[in-house]
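Final report, Chapter 2: Outcomes

The project's central promise was a pipeline that accepts a single protein chain and returns its three-dimensional structure in a standardized token representation, suitable for archiving and comparison. That pipeline is now operational. To close this chapter, we reproduce one record exactly as it appears in the project archive, with the input sequence first and the structure output second.
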Amino acid sequence: MIVRALLLVAAAAAAGCSGNQNVFNPAGPAARDIASLGWQLFIVCGAVYLLTLLALAWALARRRVPSDDTVETTASLTRTVTIATVLSIVILIGITISSVVHGRGLTSPSGPGAITVDAIGHQWWWEFQYRDLTPSDFVTSPNELHIPVGVPIQIKAMSRDVIHSFWVPNLHGKRDLIPGQVTNFWIQADTPGVYRGQCAEFCGHQHANMAFTVVAEPMDKFQQWIRAQRQPAAEPVNAEQARGQEVFLQGPCVMCHTIRGTSAGSRVGPELTHVGSRLTIAAGTLPNTRGHLGGWVLDSQSVKPGNRMPPNALTSDDLQAVLSYLRSLR
């Protein structure tokens, strides 16, 4: 019965770890090392725990007999304890060696890094900067990290305020972002897909809503995306979009956001040059739909209390115009 119960618990735990954003569903070499080590620890520790429970159950169920006080019994118990101690030491040494072997793969990428990305943590959103030799090729992608499949990506992580932690369970382990320091590490995705990342260090009121998305795609699609991101914002193509741009540039929005190709150049909040192409808004809190975007623009505090974007008192017509303009920025 005990074995059956433990198997049921293990099955339930494994079911809860299936799908995206979990350590045991690796999609890259570093994540596979972590998952392999995790399974080893789970199996070894589970086996030791089970044997300990069985020994305890046997000891509780066994009745004392006169031969327990003999010299032979004492010697047998001494041998048993000695063997158990030696086995414990061997297990601990094995776990240490395995940890060192798997840990080497976490610090050294499988090949030369082709792309370097600055990952900057803010309360409570992420900023990913792609730097090139030419300043005009600089690209910023808030809360959405695009990477090519099969290529090691060098990450230079830093924080603008408090300690954050970069964690994409499917691709790598946690890496802290410490104010005033740069943390260098790497990630790699071997399978195309969309992976969820999360801040893994408590950083304030909206820590739980400080997520980001990693989009892993073939190299040709990544290059197509990066070329599109290097372009300035699209010009309005109709009267409503033109009105939305006017409201944006003449209202409080321009004081916090950048839209390249316009007079909006503030770096307080996320860049919005290509906001219409992103999968989510508010650092992974909401899907990027017109309705959610409208609610966020009007009163972001009702969605994510404590964030630094104030409510906007827009009329219905102005709101719809702004939404049309922002949705056109792809």
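Archive annotation: The first helix runs from residue 2 to 16.
This record, like all others produced under the grant, will remain available to the consortium after the project formally closes.
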